[in-house]
Amino acid sequence: MALTTVLPETFTRAVSAFKQVEAREEILLEEVRPPEKLATYSYALGATVLRRGEEVATGRFVLLHEPGGHEAWEGTTRLVCYVTAEVEPDMASDPLLSQVSWGWLIDALDGQTEGYRAIGGTVTLTTSSRFGGLSGPTTTDLEIRASWTPLRVPPEKHLEAWCCLLASAAGLPPVGVAALPLRRW
């Protein structure tokens, strides 16, 4: 006889709401394997951002649910996000890039959601120089990692905010605005 697991309604409503979110056309969302040991219940989405057919950013969005709550989360549901994108050399040298990047997340959450608490995270810039058989241009990658507790569940608006963060990190223009073609001199 097979055992059936009854999932908490809060978790199933959140997953169902996430599946209804339609990201802008440049952002491809897909279900990925969630982490197994961070919470009793988890669900994850991966994202690839394409600009002119080229991958310019990737990310991961994770829903964690602990029915009994978690003191550090200040609630029962936690959202975790990760975004990475290569940045242009002139942008990479800006000393305020970390603060601006964190601001993209806060602006997206403040503009798209009904609130959050216990937010924390990091912004990391990694510069890579290639040598020998791997020689090529020096590149800088921006990485944003964050987690927060949504004030309202289901938290589909938080997924939409994460998509805004992905678009900002990827350098996509606002929806409805055409990007100017890059000039190569």
Q: How are the elements arranged and paired?
A:
Elements: H1 9-20, E1 27-32, E2 41-51, E3 54-70, E4 75-87, H2 89-92, H3 97-112, E5 116-130, E6 136-150, H4 156-170
Antiparallel strand pairs: 1-2, 2-3, 3-4, 4-6, 5-6
Brief summary of the model shown:
The protein is an alpha+beta fold and 185 residues long. It is built from 4 helices and 6 strands; from the N terminus they run αββββααββα.
What distinguishing features does this structure have?
6 strands, globular, 6-stranded antiparallel β-sheet, 42% strand, alpha+beta, 185 residues, 4 helices
Oligomer category: single chain
Please report which band the strand proportion falls in: under 5%, 5-15%, 15-25%, 25-35%, 35-45% or over 45%. 35-45%
Helicity range: 25-40%
**E-strand count:** 6
Report strand order across the widest sheet: 1-2-3-4-6-5
By helix and strand content, what is the structural category? alpha+beta
Cα-to-Cα separation, first versus last residue: 69 Å
Please provide the ordered H/E string of secondary-structure elements.
Answer: HEEEEHHEEH
The average pLDDT is 90
Bulk shape? globular
Determine the number of helices (DSSP H or I, runs of at least 4 residues). Answer: 4
Question: What would you note in describing this structure?
Answer:
This protein has 185 residues and is of the alpha+beta class. It has a domain at 45-170. It has helices spanning 9-20, 89-92, 97-112, 156-170, and strands at 27-32, 41-51, 54-70, 75-87, 116-130, 136-150. The chain has a 6-stranded antiparallel beta sheet with strand order 1-2-3-4-6-5. Helix 3 (97-112) packs antiparallel against helix 4.
